[in-house]
Amino acid sequence: SYNKLLEIEDEAKLIVSLPNDGRAEPLAQRRSHIHQLFQRLLHETSPAKTFRNLISVRKGVKLAGRVLPLFALNEANDTVVELLHNLSRLNKKDWQKDVLPALYNSMSLVFSVSDLQTLVQFADATRQGLLEGGVTAGRDTPPGAGPVAAALQHPFGATVVWCLVNRGEVVYATGDPLDMDVEHQRAWVQFVC
Predict the structure, then answer these.
(1) What count of Cα atoms within 13 Å lies in the side-chain half-sphere of residue 99?
(2) Top-confidence range, 24-28, 37-41, 120-124
(3) Is the model's pTM score more than 0.90?
(4) Which of 71, 87, 94, 115 is the most exposed place for a label (fewest CB within 10 A)?
(5) Distance set, CA 126 to CA 15, 18, 147 (Å)
(6) Which residue blocks in the chain are alpha helix, DSSP H?
């Protein structure tokens, strides 16, 4: 996967050096390679296990952070869902300060173009991943607090949750709540509260 990323980055450099009329075929080939990389990361025989193994090492997390901006929006959304589903694993890593900021920057780009429906999908993946990861409220968390409150006790988890909440605020401030799906609004309020 990492070699494929390097190949894609080399193609980007080559495409820039070509005249405009000669870029169509190399761009199509690059898009195809990006899609192949996405398929390799998330849609092989056991995608969840493959992806979980990938992000269990520093190099894999760096790879995820570097490929997110390359993916089409739907592919990036699927990748972010998997990352959020594995948030408890990322929170437990001792290399949070070294590797995760680059991953966060890529994730925040995806969050910044998300609508309410996508934010709800991200919120569900976050909650479900934290529950499945066994994240429970710590001693500093109020009684009855859910797994999202527990995620706020970790720097990366807190940053991701606050970025989601911030994007939700922007969606509500720039959109008309009457035009938003009631179920999505309910799910979002449940995540935030």
Answers:
(1) 18
(2) 120-124
(3) no
(4) 94
(5) 37, 42, 9
(6) 2-17, 24-42, 47-54, 58-67, 73-85, 87-92, 96-111, 116-132, 147-151, 155-174, 182-192
